[in-house]
Structures are given as C-alpha cells and as structure tokens.
Amino acid sequence: MAEDDENPLLQPPSEEEYPTIERQLSSYNPLQTFHLAKGDQKHYQQQYGDMYFLRLAELKPAVEEIAAEAWSDIVIAGESVRRVDRVLDVRQGELCWVAGTVYMDMPLKPNILDDISKDHWISAPPPREKYLSPTGQDQTMLEDESGRLRLIGTPLQISMLVTGCIIAVMGTENANGDFEVMDMKVPDLPRQPQRWERDDGSAILANGGGKSERKERKERKAGGKVAIVSGLGINGEEGDTLTLDLLMEYLLGEACGQSTQHEVGKISRLIIAGNSISEGMPLDSRDELTDKKSSKKYGYDSSAYNPAPTVRLDEFLASLLPSIPITLLPGGSDPANLSLPQQPIHPAMFPHSRAYTPMPGSQGPGWFDSVTNPWEGDVDGWRLMGNGGQPIDDVFKYVEGDERLEMMENLLRWRCGAPTAPDTLWCYPFQDKDQFVIGECPHVYFVGSQPAFETAVIDGPVGQSVRLIAVPKFKETGEVVLLDMDTLEVETVKFEVFNET
C-alpha cells in the first residue's frame, strides 16, 4: 500500500488550476504590391525589353543624384568630371560619368535555343551552378536606350554586379573603346517608413473574425514574435513528416513545458516562405507527352499526378490555423505560376484551410493569408519584405562565392527585388511599371530556401536600418526562425529526429 502512495500514476488527479495561456495577437496589414491583373487584363504578348527601360527611368534620377553629389567637385589632372546624358555621348579621353543598366555578357548564360533543344534530349542536361566563364570571356556592359558601352577597371572586380541593376560610373574611354571605371555608385536604400506609419489611422488586428479595430499608437501592444519557416518540402510519403509534426506540436504548445508554452504563446504569426511542396518530377519531352495524351482522363494524367503532398500540407495548415494565423508564400516547387511575381496558391488546393480565408466582399486579410511571392506588408508596424529565394539563387549564379547576405544587401541597395528578371529569371512582362523596383525600404528582409541560417543588420545613408534574414530549408536543417517584434532580434529553434537503429 505504501508503494501505491509513492507512485504518482496511482494518485488521484490534482485539483490545482493551471493558467490559461492565450496567444498574443499582432497587427497585420499586407500590401498588394505584386498582385497581377485578372483575366483578360493580363497579357503576355508584349516585349520584355520595356522592363529595362521602365527600371532605368525610375531609378536613374536616384543614382544620378548620388553621383552628382559625390563627383561634382572632383578634378583629376586639372580636368573636371562632367555628366553625360547617354552612354553613346561618352568621348575618348574625356573624364565623365554616366548612368545606365548593367548587362553581363556571359557565354554560359542560358538562352531560348537551349530550352528548345531540351525537347530532343532523352534527359535534359542539368542546370549550371554558375554562369561564370572559366576562361575569362565574361564582359560587363552599361546600356541605355542609345546603346552599350563595355566597362573595365578595378571597381568592377571588387563590386557585385548582375544584369539588370542600375549604376552610375565615372571614368574615361580608352583607345580601344572601353570605358575605364574609376568609381561607381548605386541608388542605395530608398526612404524607410517610420514604424506604424501606415497603420496610424487604423490597424488590422489579426483575430478570429478578421475584423479591423481602431487603436491609437499608445494602446498598441508589442512584444510578440513572428515565426518564419521555409522549404518544408512535403512529398506525402510515409515517415516524411515526423520533423514537421514536431514543428506543429511546438507551435501549438503541445510538445513543451509550461515555461516554454508561455514563450510559444508570444508567437503571433507564422510566415511560410516558399517551397512547402517538394520538387516534382522533371518535365517530359514532347514525344513523351504525345504518347501520354491517350491516358488522360478528366483533364489530367492520373498516373503522373500525386495529390498526397498538397493533402498533407492542407492538413498541416488546418491543424495550426485554429491557434495561429499563417501567411503562405509560394515557391518554385509549389503549385503556383512559375514566373515572378508568383500569385497566391489557389484556395482550391486547401479544402480544409480555406475556411479561414475571408468571405467574398469582406475587408482585410483572413486568418489564413495566401499571398504572392515576392511579398511585403506591415506586421506590428514594421515593414517586412521577403521572397521564396529565386532572386537570390539566380544572383548566386552570376557572382563568385556564396555570400547570401551580401547578395541580399546588394539587392536592397540596387533598389530592385529581382534584377536578373527577365534576363535569366522568368517574370511577367510589365509595361507600365516595374513592380520589382523597391519603393520603400523594409525594416526586415527575409529570403527563403537558403543553404543555412544567416542574419545581419545593414544601415543606409540617411539612418535606414534593415534586418536581413536568410531562412534555411526546414526539410534539410529542421530550423525555424523567430523574429522578435520589439527589438527585431532573431533566434532559431531546431527540430531533429534521432535514429537509434
């Protein structure tokens, strides 16, 4: 009998009352920057070349202002530096500066002829890891509406440049017709909005009903956290999602003690930054597609389509949504359009989770917000901007090394979220405005599906401060990033399954 009294499993249930832990709410106010027109208003017949002229027209005044301030009083060998309007106005032996669009002439870059030739391969050749030529055949050009000018010089060797970024260069043309660069300027970070600037009138409070509630700035409560995860890589196979189940139980507070549950309760939103579904099978050749036409039924090939990954993703989201709001960005492997900006994944893919999306005609976002890639919006007053990783992965192919944070910093200083689009990155052919141009500097810039977690803070010329976050692939690392919405400090939580066999 004494042994029974000492055994806690045989004791009557305790009458102690445990405190109720409520999840902290956050202010959530997304932007519609990258939404495309619907239906007949969306066209693909126009030329892509107009995008570069739109980008140059929008960013040229900013980079010229910086260049004029830096070079207006410079005198070299008794000669003052003068500005020229077009690259073809550069004269040999004359010290000058000019602004334009960078074009990297790289023989190893992909072209449309390679895409056509893939139809005749039994197995398509793998994509190149880098576009850099081992024999030094790469050339850096500066172009505008008048023509192109080849650039050479030391500043080009120490600076990161890719096709599509706007710069100003100062130097002189030599006898070979090349422009020897002495100095270079970029547009740098744009204006950064103050915290709560966009929400001063009203804040959209993330609650179950999706209603908007007016709150003065002094009444806004901060102190929460935002969880950012990327590269879930769900393939629907048995045993594939054990680490994913650990993540779900952690976010729901089911796999931790009471002290950790209080910390988890501070996580006010989950942002999934692309590649929630694993990479699919490679595209079939034209001959294989012809052979399979006869096996299609109800509009799709049942032997090739596997619904398990999207079903598992929907179950994962539906399990979390009663407790935490979710922002879902598509990625390169997700069921969305492949060209940037990727539009939100259709609600039909989420029969269970779509119950948390707003009703037609309602105002404001829902508890489940399926958004574009790239995406930007205000969370707890801070401007957040991020993407699924495609722009950084493409820039990586142009440059030496693998400094992902440096690439992210340069994208912000170039004021362009996808500079290599449309040259080597598929995108929509904008005609009126290049939506990849960064109009306002974010407070937090995150990029998904990166090789490892990295973070840094960069500063701008007029007091801007940006937190950079490289979000690793959860499928490979088991890491989720937690962003403190008071201090913008970050930490990671790692989930790992130990195999004892």
UniProtKB/TrEMBL annotation:
Swiss-Prot/TrEMBL keywords: DNA replication, DNA-directed DNA polymerase, Nucleotidyltransferase, Nucleus, Transferase
Major subcellular site: nucleus
Which Gene Ontology BP terms does the record give? Answer: DNA repair; lagging strand elongation
> Which residue ranges does the record assign to the DNA polymerase alpha/delta/epsilon subunit B domain?
226-454
Tell me which residues make up the DNA polymerase delta subunit OB-fold domain: 47-183
List the residue ranges of the region (Disordered): 201-222, 281-300
| Location(s), subcellular | Nucleus
Q: Name one GO molecular function term.
A: DNA binding
Q: Which GO terms describe its cellular component?
A: delta DNA polymerase complex
Which InterPro entries does the UniProt entry name for this protein? DNA_pol_a/d/e_bsu, DNA_pol_D_N, DNA_pol_delta/II_ssu, PolD2_C
Q: Where is the composition biased (Basic and acidic residues)?
A: 211-222, 284-293
E.C. designation(s)? 2.7.7.7
The reactions it catalyses are:
DNA(n) + a 2'-deoxyribonucleoside 5'-triphosphate = DNA(n+1) + diphosphate
Query: So what family is this one in?
Result: Belongs to the DNA polymerase delta/II small subunit family.
Know the name of this protein?
A: DNA-directed DNA polymerase
The record lists the organism as Letharia lupina
